[in-house]
């Protein structure tokens, strides 16, 4: 990012070097220095040099006045990179929360288009004011806060800004394994928190489905069709000895039970780190945490018709037609790859940024 270069007006520079003669009867007939041949040659030479060199001037990133140019680019005179570097989770939560509730996502720079798509769908449900973006790198922190001041925070340490991590990679594990720590910190501050991955789209308001006062709400990641009146208890374990709950859509109340699940999730991630032999991700650890705390925590399985997994919504058109009008949040999982996810969203009319980017508080990115 280039720094702002403070320059004195050309007239002042010239008059310092070649002061104009004071107007007095004795010299009033003398021609001004600006109009003699030497001055004109110097002026023309300076303009030519500036014209050639100015487009190529580069000031190192993070220079003394970098925040000034950030302000001018964003159109926000109060924007300051140093301000957002020092912005704490406590400050951000207090600024953004509505009804003591936050809607949270965690995003790296590569996924900004998905963030924008997700935000448009939330704007349509009038819940965007309580969205807090946890930026996993500084470019994301600065870009979101330039467009939408105060709605992004970085919880150190920052990750490197990189391309989208492939599912199953160590980079993907490093990114997603930070999630329970972020959520636990928000619970410790006393807020309700809904977590979403940004490869989701809201078709309706999810909050009416958060019935009761349970500790943890979640969705089943199985594609098998459940009856409409299915149980809201934690499903029984599968073949691997654990359940198959999705870690991408979670609602938590700031209770001892919810905090216990987050702490257990952190422990399970530490016990099952990523390796070349075992390409771990965060979801099995979340399921083990739920299974091992089930007797101590009030858990609630959200209705499948409202919160279907991608393996059901995108692959079972008969079920989609039978449950039409019931869908609330669609998750674009059961597919890997940045471009493949975008294509599938487009195929189903759910890639909103193509025609509706101005509905997002971030506008066009």
TrEMBL record:
Family: Belongs to the glycosyltransferase 77 family.
Root EC class: transferase
Secretion signal span: none
GO CC annotations, alphabetized: Golgi membrane
GO BP term, pick one: rhamnogalacturonan II biosynthetic process
Its membrane topology: Single-pass type II membrane protein
Name of the molecule in the record: Glycosyltransferase
Cited InterPro entries: Nucl-diP-sugar_transferase (IPR005069), Nucleotide-diphossugar_trans (IPR029044), UDP-D-xylose:L-fucose_XylT (IPR052636)
Every Nucleotide-diphospho-sugar transferase domain range: 127-345
Gene Ontology MF terms in the entry: UDP-xylosyltransferase activity
Compartments where found: Golgi apparatus membrane
Lineage top rank: taxon: Eukaryota
Transmembrane feature ranges: 40-57
SUPFAM superfamilies recorded: Nucleotide-diphospho-sugar transferases
UniProt KW keywords: Cell wall biogenesis/degradation, Glycosyltransferase, Golgi apparatus, Membrane, Signal-anchor, Transferase, Transmembrane, Transmembrane helix
Entry EC number(s): 2.4.2.-
């Amino acid at each position: 990012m280039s720094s702002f270069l403070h320059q004195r007006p050309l007239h002042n520079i010239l008059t310092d070097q070649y002061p104009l003669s004071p107007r007095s009867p004795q010299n009033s007939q003398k021609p001004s220095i600006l109009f003699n041949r030497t001055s004109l040659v110097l002026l023309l030479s300076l303009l030519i040099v500036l014209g050639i060199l100015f487009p190529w001037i580069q000031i190192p990133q993070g220079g003394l006045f970098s925040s000034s140019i950030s302000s001018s680019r964003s159109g926000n005179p109060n924007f300051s990179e140093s301000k957002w570097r020092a912005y704490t989770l406590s400050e951000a939560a207090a600024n953004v929360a509505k009804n003591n509730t936050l809607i949270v996502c965690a995003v790296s720079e590569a996924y900004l288009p998905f963030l924008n798509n997700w935000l448009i769908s939330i704007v349509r449900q009038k819940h965007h004011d309580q969205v807090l973006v946890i930026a996993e790198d500084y470019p994301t922190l600065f870009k979101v806060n330039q467009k939408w001041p105060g709605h992004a925070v970085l919880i150190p340490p920052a990750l490197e800004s990189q391309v989208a991590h492939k599912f199953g990679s160590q980079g993907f594990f490093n990114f997603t394994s930070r999630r329970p720590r972020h959520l636990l910190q928000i619970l410790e501050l006393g807020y309700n928190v809904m977590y979403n991955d940004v490869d989701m789209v809201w078709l309706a308001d999810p909050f009416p489905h958060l019935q009761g006062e349970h500790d943890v709400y979640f969705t089943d990641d199985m594609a098998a069709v459940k009856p409409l009146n299915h149980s809201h208890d934690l499903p029984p374990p599968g073949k691997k000895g654990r359940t198959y709950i999705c870690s991408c859509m979670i609602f938590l109340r700031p209770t001892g039970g919810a905090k216990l699940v987050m702490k257990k999730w952190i422990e399970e991630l530490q016990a099952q780190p990523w390796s070349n032999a075992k390409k771990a991700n965060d979801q099995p650890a979340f399921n083990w945490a739920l299974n091992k705390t089930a007797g101590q925590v009030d858990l609630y399985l959200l209705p499948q018709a409202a919160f279907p997994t991608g393996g059901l919504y995108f692959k079972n058109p008969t079920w989609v037609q039978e449950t039409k009008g019931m869908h609330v949040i669609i998750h674009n999982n059961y597919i890997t790859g940045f471009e493949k996810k975008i294509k599938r969203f487009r195929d189903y009319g759910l890639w909103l940024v193509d025609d509706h980017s101005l509905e997002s508080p971030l506008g066009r990115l």
